Amino acid sequence: MRLSSSAFEDGGYIPPKYTCDGEDVSIPLEFDDIPEEAQSLALIMDDPDAPGGTFVHWIVYNIPPMPGVLPEAVPNEPYLSEGIRQGVNSFGKIGYGGPCPPGGAHRYMFKLYAVDMPFDLEAGLSKHELLSAMDGHLISGAGLMGIYER
Questions:
Q1: Strand order in the sheet with 85-86
Q2: Burial of 37 (0-12, 13-18, 19+ CB in 10 A)
Q3: Which domain holds residue 145?
Q4: How far is CA 137 from CA 1, 43, 62, 86, in A?
Q5: pLDDT tens digits in sequence order for the chain, 150 residues long
Q6: 70-102 burial, b for 16+ CB within 10 Å, e for fewer?
Q7: Which residues lie across from 146 on neighbouring strands?
Q8: What CATH number has the domain bearing residue 14?
Q9: Nearest-5° angle of CA 129, CA 132, CA 133?
Q10: Model-level pTM greater than 0.90?
Q11: How many other C-beta atoms can be found within 10 angstroms of the C-beta atom of residue 54?
C-alpha cells in the first residue's frame, strides 16, 4: 500500500494552512496499491512528540478498499459519504484537528490500515477502540510523516 499527499512530501514540512495557525482544514491524502483481500481501510493521524504522550489528530474508518483520496477539508462530521466514519480526536472532537504543537518541531504520523472486514461500527470511536476492533484483522499498512514547527 502507498499513502501520500499533494500538500507535502514524506518527511517534509506540513504547510500552515492545515494547522491551528492557518485554516485548520484536513490534509489531502491519496492511497493506492490496496490489497485485493482488503474489506475496509482506516486512517489514524497522531503526534508521538506531544508532551503528554501521543496526541491523536484524526481518525477515519470504514473507507472503501480501493485506490482513492481523502480530499482537503473533509467536513468534521461523524458520517461521511460512502459509509465513511470519523472518530474522536484528542481535542475531544469528531474529525480533523490540525497540528498545534506547544513548541519545537513535532512529527505527525499518518497511518493507513487495510483490514479483512468492514467496520460495522458507529462513528465516534477513539484510537484505542479502533485499534481494538482491528486486532487480528490487519492485512497491510502504509505510513506518511510530516513535520510542523510553530
A1: 85-86, 55-63, 40-47, 105-115, 138-149
A2: exposed
A3: 2-149
A4: 16, 15, 13, 19
A5: 999 999 999 999 999 999 999 999 999 999 999 999 999 999 999 999 999 999 999 999 999 999 999 999 999 999 999 999 999 999 999 999 999 999 899 999 999 999 999 888 999 999 999 999 999 999 999 999 999 998
A6: bebebebebebeeebbbbbbbeeebbbbbbbbe
A7: 108
A8: 3.90.280.10
A9: 85
A10: yes
A11: 13
Sheet containing 29-32: order of strands: 2-4, 29-32, 68-70
Measured from the Cβ of residue 137, the count of other Cβ atoms closer than 10 Å reads: 14
Cell of 51: 508532551
Q: How many structural domains compose the chain?
A: 1
Which amino acid is present at 34? Answer: I
